[in-house]
Every structure is written in structure tokens, then in C-alpha cells.
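Hi team,

Below is the intake form for AAEL004817-PA from Aedes aegypti. Please confirm the fields before the structure is written into the shared record.

FORM ID: S-0412
PROTEIN: AAEL004817-PA
ORGANISM: Aedes aegypti
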Amino acid sequence: MNQTVTEHKKWMSNNLHKIRDRGFSTLDPPPAIGELSHQISTTNDDFPAPVTTPVPTSVGFATVSGSIMKTIMLNTSEMIFIYIIPALLHLGGFVIGIYIYRFADNEHLQCLIEKVFILCNVPRRLVVTLWVYFILGALWLAGSTAYVYLLTLKHSYVIASFPRWNSWDELDPTERDYVRIFLCVSLFFHDLVQVVIIISYSLMCYLLRCYLVGLKEKLLLHTIEPLNWMREICEFRKLLHHLNAKISLPVACLALLNLSYMFSSVVHLFQDMNSCPIRVFSYTVANVLLWLVISLMSFFQAASLTASCRQTQTCGHLISIRPFVHRNTSSEDLNTVLLYASSLNMSAKLFRMPINAHYLCFVVFVSILALLTFGMCLSLAIGGDVP
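The structure came back. Fields below:
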């Protein structure tokens, strides 16, 4: 009897590895027995004979099969949601960005830059602001690379603690250095793609804001005729449509990816708070803040552009209350500008949705409130005992 049980344990142990590695098709046939028996016997003569309680083999096999299926589903979901979907989102944003910036019609950006520099009263300030965007992107990239460097080169146990990474201790020191360098370089280019796409979107939003503000100032100062102003607004709407229909597509993919990274990092941060060193915990907090900045940057730029578009609707009312500036303009033209400006409905869009500053601030407020509440109730959130 003990030999039979030992054979079944050995069979299940061998097939667990086969199912995990190659699937159910490689299962060996089980030992040829019908039932496993568990005998409960005593040696006292006052008690009856030994009682035999048959336990079907299918019960134990069903339990093991359920555990195997649970492990397979866990590994499959981990592979899909941690590796495949984020990689596809990043690849999709990269491919769409390459197509838009390299192969699609890109004269809109050149035309926008020319118009903005012509309308701008202080071109030097405009150039400085553009350089500030580039410097901020470079600083974000440097911070992300420094985080990866500190975790991989200074704290090797972080790589050794990766799931499915059981052969880290078996590698030579040279091979470990190669793995660290390859990881740092690949993540550097991974973040570089995001910085280029998101900073380009932010720059275009800023140029559109400057273009719209310049047109508004010229109309109020009467340095442009109302008819020409309406023509320029039509050109602006074409550029805005190009931003919403094409430029925002890779930004939306990367924003979704970055937000998922940020929220998942927060969850893992609270779970590993007691197990990781304080220095690594501080690095992780800084990294979460970096992902938060790069995630919300495109939304705030779009919200700022939407606010500028809303202010353009008041241009008709502003010139109507300035009779001395537009005293040579006929009332018919003033009424035309008033009706045209009031009917404008322009906004920056991400995920095909208008981005409004009020709703964005409300979402950020709710997110921060939920994060603070979760941090205050940390012992309940991770299943700890409340003293």
C-alpha cells in the first residue's frame, strides 16, 4: 500500500514539471490501480477488525489538477498583463509615432512654427521656453536611468528576486555585468521613445497656445482685420484637428501604459514596504513620482490648450466693448466676429475625449485622496492586524 502511494506521489511530481513546461500533452499514464485505501486499524482485541475506507484516486487527482490549472492561469495572466500588453502598447506608440513624424504629412508643424514666430512679440522668450521643455525631458530621462542604475548595479538582489529568475546565482560576475548593462541600455531607449513622443506633443500644444494668444492680441489691438482673423482661426482649427486626430494617438498609448505603471508601482510599493530596505523604498517612491509626472504631462498640456480655446470665444465681446480701438470697423463686421467667436467649439482631445482642466483637477484630487486613504489604512489594505 505504501509503495503504491509512493508511486503516485512520484508520478504527480514528475508530471507537474511536464505540465508547467510543455503542457498536458506530455502526461505519462498513471499507475494501474483502481483505488487508494486508507486503513485505520488497532491491535486491541476489544475493538472490531480493521476498517478499510476506500478513497477514490480521482479525488486526489482532481485536487492536484485544480492546483495545476490555478498555477497555469496565474502564469498566463502574468505573462499577458505584465509582459505582452505593455510591450504591445509601447510598440504601438513607437510605430504610430514613426509613421506620423516620418512618413505622414508633417508640414503642419513647420507651418505652425513659422506662424508662431511671426506673431510672437518676444521670440527669445519663445526659444527659451522650448529649451525648457527639452531640458525637462532630459532630466526625466536621466532620473529614470539613474533609478535603473541604482537598483541593478548597486542592489543586485533586486534582479535575483525577479520571478522565474532562478539562475542568477549561477551566472559568472562578467555575465551578471552584461545582464545589468543590457537591462540599463534597453530601458534607456524604452524611456527615450516616450520622452521624444510626449515632449513633441507638449511642444505642439504650447505652440498652438502661443498662436492662439497672438491672434487674440492682434484682434484686440486692431492690428489684423476681422476677416483675416477668422481665416487665421480656420488655419488654427486645421492644426488642432491634426493634433487631435494624429499626434495624440501615440501619446494616448503611452499615457495608458505610464498610468498603469504608476498605479501598479504604488500597489507593489505598499506591499513591499516592510520587506525592502529604506534606500530602495526611497528610490521606488522617486520613480513613482517620475512616472506620475510623465503620465500627467500630456493631460495638463491638453487641458491648458483647451482653456486657451475657451478664452477665444470671448474675443467678440471684448472688441465690442472697445469702440475707440475699432471705431473704423463697421458694426456688421463686429457682429460677424461676435457670432463667429461665440460659435467656436475647440478643445484638445486625448482618447477622442475633450480634456478639460476642471475634470482633470478633479480626477487628480480623487486619486491623491484615494492614495492617502490607502496609506493611512495600510495595515488593513495588506491584511495586517490592527493593534
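SUMMARY LINE: The longest strand covers residues 35-40.

Thanks, M.
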